[in-house]
Design a protein that fits this description.
four-stranded antiparallel sheet; about 800 residues; six-stranded mixed sheet; alpha/beta; about 10% strand; disordered C terminus
C-alpha cells in the first residue's frame, strides 16, 4: 500500500495558468517513417546557427572537405559548424538566412562531390570513465545546440549546470500544431534518445530524469517504454495536451510544481531542461563521435503532396526540400519556418536549413483562416486569460506600439515566451507577438548601448585612476629622494664642497658666486667713496649719493661676500675691503676687463662716455691759448717761431719745460678732436659743461668781469700806441700789470682745471651724466665752464707783452 502511494505521489502533475487548445494537425506527417533525401547541388552553411557569436573560419575557397570536418572553431558560445557532406568549398560570402528580417549573414558555399565520405571519427563507448568536463567539451566540439527551437549551445548550458542540478527534464511535449519531428524521432530512435538522456544525467549528476510527453503521441510513448524496459533511472511522464505545455517554465511547473523566478533560470531551482532532439545529438556526438550535420525536419501543409519527416542536412536550401515532397505553390503562397503560432514567414525559398529548423509549413489559404486586417483593441482581456506567463498582453501591446520602453520593461516583457497564444485568441487580429519581438529588439539595442557606455566609462575611470596612482607614486618617489638628500651627512657635503673648491683653486678657477659677491662689494665701496667725495666738495643740493646710505649698502655687500666665500676667502675679501687703495686698484682692473670684454659698440660708447667732448673742447681751447702765449713770449724775446713749440711767457719759466707742456697740450688737443670725431660732436662753438667742483660760480663771475675790464684796458692801450689789431690777439698792455703775477694766476687756473679734470675722471666709473638735468640747468655747468675759460684766456692775454704775432 505504501509503495502504491509513493507511485501516485511521483506521478502527480500540476497545471499552469492560461494556455489554449488549437487544432493539432499532426496526423498529416507523423504516420510516415523518417526518410533520406538526395543531396542538393549546393549547400549554404551559415556561420551563426545558434544563440551567441559565430565561430572563426578555418577553411578557404578551393579546399576539399569531408563530412563532419569543422568549418569554424571557437569556445563558449562560439559554436562550430561542420561540413554536411564531402565536397569543395566554393566561396565565403553574404547570403540571406532563416530570419524574419531577411537580412544576409556570412555563409560558406559548398558543392558536394556525391561520395558523402566521413572524416575520421573517434567513438567513445566508455564515456563514464572520462572526466565530465571532457565530455562537455566533446559535445561542444560536435556543434550540438538546442534542437527544440531555442538554439542555445548545449555545452555552455551543461557547464552552467554542473553543480546544483537535481532534476533533468527531457522535453518531449512538442505541443505546437503541425510539428511532429520529435514525435517521429522518438518512434524511430527511442533507444538513442534514452541513451542521450542518460549521458546528460551522468554529466549533470542529476538525481532524477523526467521525460515529459503529451498524451497525443501514443506511438512515441509506447516506443519509449519499450526501449526503457525495466530500467528505473528514467521516468516517463505523460501530461495532458495543452498549448504551450512544451514551454520550459510551463513544463517545469507541470512536472515539478516549481516556478522559475522572474529574471532567473531553471537552474536556480535545481532543474535543467533539454530537448529529445538534443539528447539524440548528444548520443551521436559522445558515443559515435559524429558532429551535428543533420536533423529531422517536418514537411507539412496542404500545399505539399507528401507530408512527412525527413533527415535534412544542415545547409540544404528550403526549395530543395519542398521540391522532393511535391510542393505545389498557390498564388500568394506563404512558407513558414516553424509552427503556425511561433514560426515566421520565409522571405525566400533559397534560405538554408539550420540547426533550429524543425518544421517547414506550406499551408493553403484555407488552413490559415481568415486574413482580416488588424482592428483596434476592444479590451476584451482574452489575451490576458490565454497568456501562460501571467502577463498583461494588452498593456504590453500599448507600450510596444507607443515606444514606452520603461513601462514595457516594468511589465516584464522579457518574460514573454512568444508562444502566440494571445494573438491566436485576439478577435481584432492584432499580431501581438510581432510587436513584442520588435520591442524586445529595441530593448536589447538600448541595453547594448548602455553596456558599451558603461564599459567606456569604466575604462575612462580606470585610466584616470591609473594616472592618479602614477602621479602619487612619482610624488612619493620625489619626496623620498628629498628626504634622503635632507638626511645625508653634512660632513660629506662639506667634504664635497672642499674637494670642489680645491679642484677649482688648483685649476685657477674662482667660484662664480664668490666673485659676484666680491664684485658687488667693490661696487658698493666705490659708491661710498664717491658719496664721501661729493659730501666734501659739493653742496647738499648737488649731491647725487647719500653717504650714509652708500655706507650701509657697502656694509651689506661686504657681509654677503663674507657669507658666500669660504672662511679663508672671506678673511681675504674682508682684508681687501678694508684697504681702500687695493679696492681701488681692483675696481680699476675690473673696469678695464669690462671694457675689454664689451662689444665694439659698447666699447665705443664707453670711450665716448670716458672722454667728454665739451671738456675736450675746453682743454683744446686752453692748449691753443697756451700755445699763443708761448709764441708771443718767444717773439718778444727774439726767438724764431717757425717749428718751435710754444712755451709759457714768464721770466721764471724754463723754455724746455714750456716746450714739453706745449707738446702735451697739442697731444691733448688731438686726442680731444679724435674723441669729438668719434662721438660726432662739433669742435667749434662748444660750450664746455664739466668743471672742477671747487670753483664758486659767483667768484668765477667776478673774475670774468675783472678779465673783461683788463682786456678792454689792454685794447685801449694798443690803440693809443698805434698797434694794428687785425688778426692779433690783444693782451693787457699796462705797466701796472706784473707779468709774473699774471703767470702765477694762470698757473693757479691751470691747477684748478687739472683738479676738476681729476675729480671728473674719478667719477666717470660710477656716475653717468644726466642729460635731462644738464638741459634743464644750463646756467649752472655751462656758464660756470664758460666763465672759467674766459678767465683763463684773459689771464693769458694779460701775461702776454704788447706785440703783434701771427696765429
Amino acid at each position: 500500500m505504501l509503495n502504491l502511494l509513493n507511485i501516485f505521489r511521483k506521478e502527480k502533475l500540476w497545471d499552469f495558468e492560461g494556455g489554449i487548445h488549437p487544432p493539432e494537425m499532426k496526423t498529416q506527417s507523423n504516420g510516415t517513417p523518417l526518410s533520406q533525401l538526395p543531396l542538393p547541388d549546393r549547400f549554404i552553411i551559415p556561420l551563426k546557427q545558434h544563440i551567441g557569436h559565430e565561430g572563426e573560419i578555418c577553411v578557404a575557397p578551393g579546399d576539399r572537405v569531408l563530412r563532419g570536418q569543422p568549418l569554424t572553431f571557437g569556445s563558449g558560445r562560439m559554436l562550430p559548424v561542420h561540413a554536411p557532406t564531402s565536397g569543395t568549398i566554393d566561396a565565403i560570402g553574404q547570403h540571406m538566412t532563416a530570419h524574419p528580417s531577411g537580412l544576409s549573414e556570412l555563409c560558406i558555399f559548398m558543392s558536394p562531390d556525391g561520395e558523402d565520405r566521413w572524416t575520421l571519427l573517434e567513438p567513445m563507448a566508455d564515456y563514464r570513465q572520462r572526466e565530465r568536463a571532457a565530455i562537455v567539451q566533446r559535445i561542444h566540439d560536435a556543434g550540438v545546440a538546442g534542437l527544440g527551437g531555442a538554439g542555445f549551445p548545449t555545452g555552455t548550458k551543461l557547464r552552467g549546470g554542473l553543480r546544483g542540478v537535481k532534476t533533468l527534464i527531457i522535453n518531449a511535449a512538442e505541443c505546437e500544431p503541425y510539428i511532429t519531428a520529435d514525435d517521429r524521432l522518438m518512434q524511430d530512435y527511442a533507444a538513442e534518445v534514452l541513451e542521450g538522456s542518460r549521458i546528460l544525467a551522468w554529466v549533470l549528476q542529476a538525481e532524477r530524469v523526467l521525460i515529459g510527453i503529451e498524451d497525443n503521441k501514443p506511438e512515441a510513448i509506447a516506443a519509449l517504454k519499450q526501449a526503457l524496459g525495466g530500467e528505473r533511472d528514467l521516468q516517463i511522464r505523460v501530461i495532458p495536451t495543452k498549448y504551450p505545455s512544451g514551454g520550459a517554465k510551463q513544463l517545469t511547473k507541470i512536472l515539478t510544481g516549481l516556478e522559475v523566478p522572474h529574471g532567473g533560470r531553471s537552474t536556480d531551482i535545481g532543474v535543467l531542461m533539454q530537448n529529445v532532439g538534443t539528447a539524440w545529438a548528444v548520443k551521436r556526438a559522445v558515443i559515435d563521435g559524429e558532429p551535428l550535420t543533420e536533423r529531422v525536419v517536418t514537411l507539412t501543409g496542404e500545399a505539399i503532396a507528401q507530408p512527412r519527416n525527413v533527415w535534412s542536412r544542415i545547409g540544404t536550401p528550403i526549395s530543395h526540400l519542398l521540391h522532393q515532397v511535391g510542393f505545389t505553390p498557390a498564388p500568394r503562397q506563404m512558407v513558414i519556418m516553424g509552427g503556425p503560432l511561433m514560426g515566421f514567414t520565409l522571405p525566400s525559398l533559397d534560405v538554408p536549413v539550420v540547426k533550429i529548423t524543425n518544421c517547414i509549413l506550406a499551408p493553403s489559404a484555407s488552413e490559415m483562416g481568415n486574413n482580416d486586417e488588424e482592428q483596434s483593441c476592444i479590451r476584451c482581456s482574452a489575451c490576458a486569460d490565454a497568456c501562460p506567463a501571467k502577463l498583461l498582453p494588452q498593456q504590453l501591446y500599448w507600450y510596444s506600439q507607443g515606444g514606452d520602453h520603461d513601462k514595457a520593461r516594468a511589465h516584464h516583457i522579457d518574460d514573454c515566451i512568444e508562444c502566440g497564444a494571445c494573438a491566436y485568441v485576439c478577435p481584432s487580429n492584432i499580431p501581438l507577438v510581432q510587436y513584442y519581438r520588435q520591442e524586445k529588439a529595441e530593448l536589447r539595442a538600448i541595453d547594448l548601448e548602455a553596456k558599451r557606455t558603461a564599459e567606456a566609462k569604466a575604462r575612462f575611470e580606470a585610466r584616470q585612476a591609473r594616472l592618479e596612482r602614477e602621479k602619487l607614486a612619482r610624488e612619493a618617489k620625489h619626496e623620498q629622494a628629498k628626504q634622503r638628500v635632507a638626511r645625508s651627512d653634512e660632513g660629506e657635503l662639506a667634504a664635497a664642497r672642499e674637494r670642489v673648491m680645491a679642484k677649482r683653486q688648483a685649476a685657477g678657477v674662482v667660484d662664480p658666486a664668490v666673485e659676484e659677491a666680491q664684485r658687488q662689494a667693490r661696487h658698493a665701496q666705490a659708491h661710498l667713496r664717491q658719496a664721501e667725495a661729493q659730501a666734501e666738495t659739493q653742496p647738499v643740493t648737488r649731491q647725487t649719493e647719500d653717504p650714509r646710505k652708500a655706507a650701509v649698502e657697502a656694509a651689506i655687500a661686504r657681509a654677503k661676500a663674507k657669507k658666500v666665500a669660504q672662511p679663508e676667502a672671506a678673511e681675504q675679501s674682508q682684508a681687501e675691503a678694508v684697504d681702500p687703495r687695493k679696492a681701488a686698484v681692483e675696481a680699476a682692473i675690473a673696469r678695464a676687463k669690462a671694457k675689454k670684454v664689451a662689444q665694439p659698440e659698447a666699447a665705443e660708447q664707453s670711450q665716448a662716455e670716458a672722454i667728454d667732448p665739451r671738456k675736450a673742447a675746453v682743454e683744446a681751447a686752453i692748449a691753443r691759448a697756451k700755445a699763443k702765449k708761448a709764441e708771443a713770449a718767444q717773439a718778444a724775446a727774439g726767438t724764431p717761431t717757425e717749428e718751435t713749440p710754444p712755451v709759457e711767457d714768464a721770466p721764471a719759466v724754463d723754455p724746455r719745460k714750456a716746450a714739453v707742456e706745449a707738446a702735451i697740450a697739442r697731444a691733448k688737443a688731438k686726442k680731444a678732436e679724435a674723441a669729438q670725431a668719434a662721438a660726432g660732436a662739433p669742435t667749434e662753438e662748444v660750450q664746455p659743461v664739466e668743471d672742477a667742483p671747487a670753483v664758486d660760480p659767483r667768484k668765477a663771475a667776478v673774475e670774468a668781469a675783472i678779465a673783461r675790464a683788463k682786456a678792454k684796458k689792454a685794447e685801449a692801450a694798443q690803440a693809443a700806441a698805434g698797434t694794428p689789431t687785425e688778426e692779433v690777439q690783444p693782451v693787457e698792455d699796462a705797466p701796472a700789470v706784473d707779468p709774473r703775477k699774471a703767470a702765477v694766476e694762470a698757473a693757479i687756473a691751470r691747477a684748478k682745471a687739472k683738479k676738476a679734470a681729476a675729480a671728473q675722471a674719478s667719477e666717470k666709473d660710477v656716475v653717468t651724466l644726466d642729460v635731462a638735468n644738464r638741459d634743464a640747468r644750463p646756467s649752472d655747468d655751462a656758464r660756470k665752464a664758460a666763465v672759467a675759460a674766459a678767465i683763463a684766456r684773459a689771464k693769458a692775454r694779460k701775461a702776454q707783452p704788447p706785440s703783434t704775432f701771427e696765429e
